[in-house]
UniProtKB/TrEMBL annotation:
GO terms for cellular component: nucleus. CDD domains: bHLH_AtPRE_like. This is KIDARI, PACLOBUTRAZOL RESISTANCE 6. It comes from Hibiscus trionum. It is found in: Nucleus. Pfam families: bHLH_ILI. GO terms for biological process: regulation of DNA-templated transcription; regulation of growth. Gene3D superfamilies: Helix-loop-helix DNA-binding domain (4.10.280.10). One of its GO terms (molecular function) is protein dimerization activity. SUPFAM superfamilies: HLH, helix-loop-helix DNA-binding domain. Residues 1-53 form the BHLH domain. PROSITE patterns: BHLH.
Amino acid sequence: MSSRRSGSRITDDQIADLVSKLQRLIPELRGRRSDKVSASKVLHETCNYIRNLHREVEDLSDRLSQLLASTDPDNEQAAILRSLLM
């Protein structure tokens, strides 16, 4: 059985294009003038960036939960936020 599927093979040019697009999205790499950043470095920095975003989301979620827990349960704005989060 062949591991290749017809029509699904990605070319080296497509990979290079995708890595280039990732490089432009990652703040640590975006400012670099050189296009000589290795694909490995781009993928590594992308993983780090995603991990950091996850941590930020968790931190913001915890802070929001604490804020909502400390607000008056009858507060209309807090009730709206609670309903949006459920």
